[in-house]
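Issue 218. Parser rejects a valid record. Input:
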Amino acid sequence: MDGCLVVNMMRVSDVGLTVLLFGLWLGASAALMAPWTLPSVDLGFYGQALGIAFILVLVAWLWVARRVVAYTPTVRPIAFPRLGFARTLIGILGAVLALFAIAFAAHPQLVLVAALSVAAAGLIVLRRSQVPGRWVGTGLGLGGACLLLSYLSERLDPFMAFYLTCIPVLFVGGTMLAAATGAAWVHSADGDWGKAAAGFLGGCALALPAALLNVSGGAHLGDAWVDRPWEPLVALVPGIAEETWARLFMLTLLYAVLRAASPDRAGRALFTAVLIAALVHALAHLPSAMVFSPAALQMGLAALLFGVPMGLIYARLGFEWAVGYHFFVDFVRFGIALLAP
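Output the parser choked on:
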């Protein structure tokens, strides 16, 4: 298996954890939906507690399950410097801090996406003979869908236009990294749309407690722009775009670099990559002046509750599962914003 991250098939010893996960999924979903189904019953505290418990058990379930089927790298491995784990980690954190420092002149997400796109473009140029046309076509299709939805919802400003134009490059570069490391399945890039759709829908179902937990904290209150019945579907934009740059490209790149620095510690490389990607992704949502403010603590909590599960879902279950999970969290949030008085 040599460095591959692969989806697990459950052992008998994992059955109890799976049953617990399903029970928490049911309990958290029911309690968090109570304000709409049983308005006279106050289950807010219990619903939030069950929702957080579900996320914690989901992380454990994704982490501990053992693998028996490998996702084998399909292209030539990429050679990264082997500087040792500690020095590599310090270099990564230094690069991240430098990018956030540069972001004081612009929005952090803009700087991060631009820097990652340059890296992705360089990888594509170096390995252009190994890039199938279907990868390019899928990347263009996903980026085009995001641009169209943003345009129709009147949210396509110059920042969004640049950001979403980078998605095809990041998708192709991320798919190359995933194929070279065996980090995750990307069924849409392989042209297996049946498995891609099944993964997307599975991610949506898995995300229900997290989506309800998100709106129970009032996340929808800042979405007054949602005023047309179809606009909750704009959740596809962050679902596709953010999972492309934060998980498919950035997380996989971090894993590849850390794995090279620690060849015999795949778990440590994965855990570190998931955590860094989640924190960077969360902090990138803040305006530049707030990245080093107390507001960063709130985003750090969001990274642990939402970003870490999405990272593990990506690595264990596949890209489309992560997109579905992310989409549904925002879809429910936008839907509640539409229905709220």
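Fixed in the parser; the record now loads. The chain has 13 helices and no strands.
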